[in-house]
From TrEMBL, chain A:
Subunit and interaction comment: Heteromultimer composed of HisG and HisZ subunits.
Domain of life, source organism: Bacteria
Name listed for the protein in its UniProt record: ATP phosphoribosyltransferase regulatory subunit
Pathway where this protein functions: Amino-acid biosynthesis; L-histidine biosynthesis; L-histidine from 5-phospho-alpha-D-ribose 1-diphosphate: step 1/9
Domain Class II Histidinyl-tRNA synthetase (HisRS)-like catalytic core: 24-171, 248-369
Organism of derivation: Rhizobium fredii
InterPro entries: aa-tRNA-synth_II/BPL/LPL, HisRS-like_core, HisRS/HisZ, HisZ
Molecular-function GO term, any one: histidine-tRNA ligase activity
NCBIfam families cross-referenced by the UniProt entry: PRK12295.1-4 (NF008951)
Binding site residues for L-histidine: 64-66, 92, 103, 107, 317, 321-322
Similarity comment: family membership: Belongs to the class-II aminoacyl-tRNA synthetase family. HisZ subfamily.
Gene behind the chain: hisZ
Keyword field contains Glycosyltransferase: yes
UniProtKB/TrEMBL annotation, chain B:
Keywords on record: Amino-acid biosynthesis, Glycosyltransferase, Histidine biosynthesis, Transferase
Coiled coil region boundaries: none
Transferase recorded as keyword: yes
Domain ATP phosphoribosyltransferase catalytic: 54-228
Source species of the chain: Rhizobium fredii (Sinorhizobium fredii)
Cited NCBIfam families: hisG
Name used for this protein in its record: ATP phosphoribosyltransferase
Coiled coil listed as a keyword: no
GO cellular component: cytoplasm
Amino acid sequence: MPLINLPAFAGDLLADFERLKTLRVDTPVIQPAEPFLDMAGEDLRRRIFMTESETGDSLCLRPEFTIPVCLRHIETATGTPQRYAYLGEVFRQRREGSSEFYQAGIEDLGDTDTAGADARAIGDAMLVLSNRLGERRLKVTLGDQSVFEAVIAACGLPSGWQKRLIHAFGDQKLLQKLLGELADPKSPGVFGYEVERLAILGILDDEERLVAHLTETMEATGYSTNASRSPREIARRLKEKMELATTRLDKAALAVMREFLAFDLPLSEAPAALHAFAKKSKLKLDDALPLFDARVAALAKAGADSDLIRYRAAFGRPLDYYTGLVFEIEAEGAPAVLAGGGRFDRLLTLLGAREHIPAVGFSLWLDRIERAIAAAGALK
Amino acid sequence: MTITIALPSKGRMKDDASAIFERAGMKIVAVGNDRSYRGRVEGWDDVEVAFLSASEISREVGSGAVDFGVTGEDLVREGIADADARVEFAARLGFGHADVVVAVPEVWYDVDTMADLGDVAADFRARHGRRLAIATKYWRLTQQFFSGSHGIQLYRIVESLGATEGAPASGSADIIVDITSTGSTLKANHLKILLDGVILRSEACLVRARKAAHDGDPTIDRIISSVRSIL
């Protein structure tokens, strides 16, 4: 690559990727903007560099690699499993630092051995960082969305509340606010006048009559019953909302949830702690804990230094295509996140893949790694 | 230094703005004929007036090309990033009242608050294969309110430059963010405003560009105090 602003270690990093038996891919710098806005939400619009094609399609400069790599995989109909590696420039407005910078990473698509692939992603990220940073100790934080989901399901909350909490996972402020609402019996649900009228007429308790009433109203007011939310969807959500409004989490259950979210301990101690927690709190976590245990075992087998990894129960990303593992790596003594990764089993189908393709990966912030290397050099 | 005030070039806003300035002792007269886009203030030789369209006014005040402007707060907050740092709302003028609101179909009986809407938005993709679509011309205000104030990320904005209220019924969007003064157009289109869905209570304002050159300029203070004195 002829670019002169590449970090000096780029060649060595690519050699590492090759030794890890990945397939190096490149993707166009100019990408359709829709998939990014669709996956990450409108907020991204302010941070990416957008333009329009002659025919009016929204285009943007590549803000990251995961979505382009997955789209390329779907378009070229490559078989799975397949592990891709990339290194290139991305473009995004950040609070600090330049808006064009290099990222590199690995995306592992289609491996059905979830625990093994998770462990390999963490191990590979740790390996390539250690190779750059020498003796600097790494600090890995690991979270698991599926354990959180299992805990709130086991607490016996109605599905509407489960969805709210899952959606807030990774957003500390929102999650604490929701738990506060769950505990506080003062905040009632808000219902409109029309709902009260339907309740008096007895239509509210009968889903079929409610759906018929909604259909009639939509037709009479010129609203299509299938272009947006359907009568049945509204009827079911109304029922769910009534449950949301009347559900109160008792003090004990709330304490259980808070105890769980406070877990922050070395990964090697996490399996025993989680099993003890489940037993003590009488929660059935049989679906989530075996995978967690298997991942810890796979990490140990792969030789990753588990002393460097902490499990933090409240750590997650509030993006709806992340499904299980999330992790971040820092170098000890420097606050910057050098690598971030996780499992996104939902992303490929959201992007249009016909079949379910499990996926896990990570990306590296090359400018931060460069600074961490420079800082280490200055210390010596 | 000559101070430039940008005023609306036509319609009720133009008449109401002229009336306020006249009562404040700043009678505005057009330079040349009545349809000229330049004006002056009788007896104020160091002040000139530019007649511009309402959205141009917010842009020109935001960039500091003019010193003052009279325009709707909604246009200022939509048109200028970090508005309070770049302009000062020197006076609220008591006309041009309108609210920027989040409105959903009346028949969404289960949605009365932004929290309800958050639930619906979170689920939308799984049910409909697309994100919840919001028709609006207020990109910035919508993003700030949804993402910033209510933690709702998962929606898409469909730009709508006119007849926004019709978008949900026509199927081009699910809900809207739009301006309303009496609410009658919303009602006619079977839309309801969410209880906590008022993003901004807007009215016409005298807006000053924050410029270092204004510090200690007596004309600046005189204009602001004259307008404030009659409100």
